[in-house]
Amino acid sequence: MSSYLLIVKSELPGAVAGLVSGAESGVLSFGSILNQFSNRSWYLDGRLLLLLTSVCIVFPLALLPKIGFLGYTSSLSFFFTVYFTLVVMIKKWSIPCPLPLTSAIETLQVSNSTGDCKAKLFHLSKESAYAIPTMAFSFLCHTSVLPIYCELQSPSKRRMQNVTITGIGLSFLIYFMSALFGYLTFYDKVDSELLQGYSRYLPHDTIMMTVRAAILFAVLLTVPLIHFPARKAVLMVFFSHLPESWICHILVTLTLNAVVVLFAMYVPDIKNVFGVVGSTTSTCLLFVYPGLFYLKLNREDFISPQKLGACALVIFGICVGLLSLVLIIFNWVDQ
């Protein structure tokens, strides 16, 4: 949850600044109202904006008692992400390569190196330590599987498998297309936060402003989905002996949201959070725990192909997680 809220903290001020600059140029009137309201740019403070959006959007949605209610907001979030991907694909032809040296796209100062415009199949560097954990984090939906299964109409293994394949398949397609065209736009100059690259080279592009707003809404609407299984786990572990009550429900929701918002407010860099969370919890949930669960529940011989595959999954997850975490720590030390 904190990782997603970090995106809001880092991206929302830029989106608001774009709206204000558009207003000052006569396109909108919203910015002039803000400027009259206060001489200080309080509306460009990422922490304050994060707090306001969490109180007004995330917390009310997180209070909902059933995850099925969040299906509507989840669908809206998905369409926002599709819009983002389509714009990334189209904007590949709006930014020249070689890239301009300055942030103003109108200037004719460009890099003379045409070698920067050649795609590489593999590019290994210190930053590669963040790649696998971030990809693992992006497919991390395992915590919502059981709540979703419980709320399916006529739940069965086959129906849950169809839900899983559809969800993971659509996510992979969107991630793949946005990552591919984002890389083919910026090549070696691609930023760890893709939208910041477009802000640098297309600072006053109206479509990119709407994309920023769309992706921020998509992120905000995803946070309550992650909160639901977290609250469920806390209630089951610590309060299972108590009867269900709205007071307990609200207090646990409020506490969890307060903790993650404070964490997101005071962590400086999203890349570090994605790297550490991805190399620890994500690799455990994606590789280690499923393999361990299978080994515990399956009664076949240990040398059966299925159990050997589960063992390989556990070992792979541990190796990837440890290697990524060690490389990230070494990267911190170098910096």
Task: Note down, in words, how this protein is organized.
There is one protein chain. The chain is an all-alpha fold. Helices cover 70% and strands 0% of the residues. It contains twelve helices and no strands. The protein has helices spanning 2-24, 30-37, 46-62, 71-91, 131-138, 145-150, 157-186, 194-201, 206-238, 246-266, 270-297, 305-334.
Please render the helix and strand layout as text.
Layout: H1 2-24, H2 30-37, H3 46-62, H4 71-91, H5 131-138, H6 145-150, H7 157-186, H8 194-201, H9 206-238, H10 246-266, H11 270-297, H12 305-334
Helix pairs in contact: 1-2, 1-3, 1-9, 1-10, 3-9, 3-10, 4-7, 4-9, 5-11, 9-10, 11-12
Give a nutshell description of this structure.
70% of the residues lie in helices and 0% in strands. By secondary structure, it is mainly alpha-helical.
